[in-house]
User: Which sequence fits this backbone?
């Protein structure tokens, strides 16, 4: 039981290390995750031993190089990011808008890839590796809608839904209705709910078992998004289907030269 409790604390500890705050001390970690200083020290020391953290001078800790090795292992296999890359690029280039690829991690969105749009007035979008609450983003709702209602209740609706803009959904009942609409329509919208005047549409990507594993999206300023909303919707659903087909076919890591052309046809369809 003690070993299980220790494992359950690893995630919250690693979550503390961000681009904005890459370094932490023992006392700070103890306070942040709510454990005694001795327990925090033991946990940090264990993570150093396996290379996930490194101990710097003055007892300060940073992410370790083992993370880089694990990342290389992940990228060396056929995964959703590899399969989505040419389609994500084609989607962005066709419309000049920013396109994102995201997954769900502990009921929050994690952005794993993006292509920035080419318009003069553009949306830079979320940073790769960034996390965002699922209830206020199109990719988040596209992913969340395919989770079991009981899981959503326990992990999302039991806590207050943070308001980011006046348009953010903060009612559990309203979010439940929204997620049912996502299932009916095959896509999800963000109408300025995460960032004011920035809209988004996303569609789910499935693996070979039919399980939703990621979502792909187009993000644009509301002034351009609203007139093109239905075209963007069709394009994103087409892109998601193309990634699903690529993923289920176990496309090798080396992308064929004509893949982007095929992706454009899928998006147009």
Assistant:
């Amino acid at each position: 039981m003690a070993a299980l409790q220790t494992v359950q604390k690893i995630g919250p500890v690693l979550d503390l290390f961000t681009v904005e705050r890459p370094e932490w001390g023992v006392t700070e970690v103890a306070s942040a995750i709510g454990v005694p200083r001795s327990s925090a020290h033991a946990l940090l020391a264990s993570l150093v031993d396996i290379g996930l953290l490194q101990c710097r001078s003055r007892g300060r800790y940073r992410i370790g190089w083992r993370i880089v090795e694990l990342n290389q292992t992940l990228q060396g296999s056929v995964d959703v990011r590899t399969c989505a890359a040419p389609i994500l690029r084609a989607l962005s280039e066709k419309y000049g808008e920013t396109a994102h690829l995201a997954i769900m991690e502990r009921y929050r969105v994690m952005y794993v890839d993006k292509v920035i749009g080419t318009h003069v007035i553009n949306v830079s979008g979320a940073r790769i590796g960034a996390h965002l609450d699922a209830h206020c983003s199109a990719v988040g709702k596209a992913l969340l809608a395919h989770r079991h209602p009981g899981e959503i209740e326990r992990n999302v609706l039991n806590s207050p839904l943070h308001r980011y803009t006046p348009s953010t959904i903060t009612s559990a009942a309203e979010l439940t209705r929204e997620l049912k609409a996502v299932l009916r329509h095959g896509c999800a919208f963000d109408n300025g709910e995460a960032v004011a005047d920035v809209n988004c549409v996303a569609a789910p990507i499935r693996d070979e078992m039919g399980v939703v594993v990621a979502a792909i999206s187009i993000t644009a300023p509301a002034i351009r998004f609203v007139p093109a909303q239905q075209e963007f919707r069709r394009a994103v659903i087409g892109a998601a289907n193309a990634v699903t087909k690529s993923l289920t076919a176990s496309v090798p890591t080396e992308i064929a030269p004509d893949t982007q052309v095929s992706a454009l046809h899928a998006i147009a369809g």
Remarks:
- Confidence is low (pLDDT under 50) at residues 251-259.
